[in-house]
Write a structure and sequence with these properties.
- By secondary structure, the chain is mostly helical.
- It is built from five helices and no strands.
- The N and C termini lie far apart (37 Å).
Length: 115
């Protein structure tokens, strides 16, 4: 996922990319550096999206967490992976993963009182 997201982020200015005819070599260097600097902060969120996908599997296969949390996990993981593979939005994990972490915090907080 990380490599595919990086490929989409850099494809615009790469030779043969969608915007290759609009840019010079210097523009490509600036674009690559700019995209790496602006997009890499979202790459760390892919681990959280992987955890969301694993949580969805645990909920639906073993019922170890509330069903609503499994639905939230599955939807956020599917949308994030789909947005990266289908539309080329590699930063989608950084936009959706904090919402999953909030939902996970609610589950942990509520489960703590039930023991």
């Amino acid at each position: 996922m990380f490599s595919f997201g990086l490929k989409h982020a850099l494809a615009g200015g790469a030779p043969g990319g969608i915007d290759a005819s609009f840019r010079t070599n210097i523009d490509i260097e600036v674009l690559v550096l700019g995209l790496v600097v602006s997009q890499m902060q979202y790459a760390v969120w892919w681990g959280v999206i992987a955890a969301a996908a694993c949580a969805a599997v645990l909920v639906f296969a073993h019922r170890v967490l509330p069903t609503w949390f499994g639905v939230v996990s599955a939807v956020l993981a599917t949308v994030s992976i789909g947005a990266t593979l289908g539309v080329g939005l590699p930063h989608s994990a950084g936009l959706l993963a904090p919402g999953w972490m909030l939902a996970a915090s609610v589950v942990v907080f509520r489960a703590r009182g039930s023991q």
